[in-house]
Amino acid sequence: MKIIKTSLPGVLIIQPKVFGDQRGYFFESYQRQRYAEQGIDVEFVQDNISHSQQGVLRGLHYQLPHTQGKLVWVSHGAVFDVAVDVRIGSPTFGKATYLTLDAANHQQLYVPPGFAHGFCTLTDNVGFHYKCSNYYAPDCEFTIRWDDPDLDIPWPISDPTLSPKDTNKPTLKDIPVDSLPKYEDFS
């Protein structure tokens, strides 16, 4: 497994070892000891799978106070995946990192607690997998407007299909400070 750092400290791209032959392929999507050895020493407590058609956008979501770290990957199709640092006091507050995750490249993205996450589908029949470090708490979920101009995310679609919970949301600068996680420097 190879770890690739992104422009946001703590947000990591994971390239697992893939074993393939004429039958197909095999890879470990998660193995606690190997991930811990690479600095992702997280106890995941919930797994989720979403299935979406092309043009769907989910996000940008985060939870407070029950923050969640997420390990995400795609088993079918492709997505444009985004993580945004929303931790008050962070040197990278309001900055985003993004990449394409797809079933062909097998890459994963680790998004630590305190970051908002979202993705849009680039193909039909996308299978998107999440391992979460905290339980989903609907009353603790916050959503940032997906096309917040201050975040400058180059979404590859301009008119996505959104759920009602992702429609008409505030920009990051319009979210009250007490509704954002706090930055902690552990260095």
Written overview of the protein:
It is a single chain. The chain has 187 residues and is mainly β. It has a single domain (2-174), classed as Jelly Rolls, CATH 2.60.120.10. The chain is built from 1 helix and 13 strands; from the N terminus they run ββββαβββββββββ. The strands form 3 sheets. It has a 6-stranded antiparallel β-sheet with strand order 1-2-10-7-12-5, with no helix packed on it. The protein has a 5-stranded antiparallel β-sheet with strand order 9-8-11-6-13, with no helix packed on it. Strand 1 (2-5) and strand 2 form a beta hairpin. The longest helix is centred in the first third of the chain and has 6 residues, at 32-37. The radius of gyration is 16 Å and the shape is globular.
Please give the structural blueprint.
Blueprint: E1 2-5, E2 12-15, E3 19-21, E4 24-26, H1 32-37, E5 46-52, E6 57-63, E7 70-76, E8 78-85, E9 96-102, E10 108-111, E11 115-121, E12 126-132, E13 141-143
Antiparallel strand pairs: 1-2, 2-10, 3-4, 5-12, 6-11, 6-13, 7-10, 7-12, 8-9, 8-11
DSSP helix fraction = under 10%
What shape does the CA trace take?
globular
- Spatial order of the strands forming the largest sheet: 1-2-10-7-12-5
H/E element sequence: EEEEHEEEEEEEEE
* Number of E strands: 13
Strand content: 35-45%
The fourth-level CATH homologous superfamily is Jelly Rolls
User: What's the CATH C level?
Assistant: Mainly Beta
Average of per-residue pLDDT values: 96
CATH level 3 topology? Jelly Rolls
The secondary-structure class comes to: mainly beta
Which second-level CATH architecture applies? Sandwich
Radius of gyration: 16 Å
Largest β sheet strand count, sense and barrel closure? 6 strands, antiparallel
Measure the end-to-end span: 25 Å
Distinct helical segment count: 1
Provide the domain count.
1
Unreliable parts: none
